[in-house]
Write a structure and sequence with these properties.
single chain, alpha+beta, four-stranded antiparallel β-sheet, elongated, disordered C terminus
């Protein structure tokens, strides 16, 4: 059985980018576990998430642990802004972490070795019941830079009419929302999901439907 240090060291050697110490970093990851301030290493791991407690040195000379969550597959999946007939497809989704219902776009974790665009296409079909007709990459987002170390790919997609009968993975309602209604929902605080807001921002900046009045990417 491997120790927490051996598991941690294996991850560090396989993904050195996750353990970089750029100039001026506010916390420098140490090569060894200090004798005090533990535990350090991999605290938890499953097929989706890996929770680390890194041994670090702070600018004032103190050492200690810093928690962060990484996706076990290398990236945290994809979120997709689906558009049908000039309206955005939103899902009303119950989330365990907040114990609340949220208006969201489709998103999900990747399968092992799955690139972000393939994840995006799969999640669209699973959550709204129709395949994406076309997909455009919008950019990457980190949901919470204070604790989450893996990026999520954001995508725009043209889709057919959703299957409004889908009821799975905590989804209880699917709605087609105009850009005007979307602005009202944002202004009234009805949309609080960071991936949804980030995708909307990117789509608006690029003037993609429904913000361009067109049926597909410019």
């Amino acid at each position: 059985m491997t120790t927490p240090f051996e598991e941690y060291d294996l991850l560090r050697r396989s993904r050195p980018d996750l353990f970089a110490n750029p100039p001026g970093a506010g916390s420098v990851i140490l090569d060894e576990f200090p004798p005090e301030g533990g535990p350090y290493g991999i605290c938890y791991r499953d097929q989706y998430l890996t929770l680390l407690r890194d041994p670090v040195a702070f600018p004032d000379g103190r050492t200690g642990g810093y928690l962060r969550a990484l996706h076990s597959g290398g990236h945290a999946g994809a979120a997709v802004l689906p558009v049908h007939d000039g309206r955005i497809v939103l899902l009303r989704h119950f989330r365990h972490a907040t114990r609340q219902w949220h208006w969201e776009i489709p998103r999900g974790f990747p399968e092992p070795g799955e690139p972000a665009e393939k994840t995006a296409r799969r999640e669209v079909e699973e959550e709204i019941g129709v395949p994406a007709e076309s997909v455009e990459f919008l950019g990457d987002v980190y949901a919470d830079t204070g604790v989450a170390g893996s990026k999520v790919g954001l995508f725009w997609a043209a889709v057919g009419r959703p299957d409004f009968s889908i009821r799975e993975e905590g989804i209880d309602h699917i709605e087609l929302v105009s850009s005007q209604r979307l602005d009202l929902m944002l202004g009234q605080g009805e949309i609080t999901d960071s991936f949804t807001m980030a995708a909307i921002l990117h789509a608006k900046q690029r003037a993609l439907p429904p913000f361009s009045g067109q049926d597909g990417p410019a």
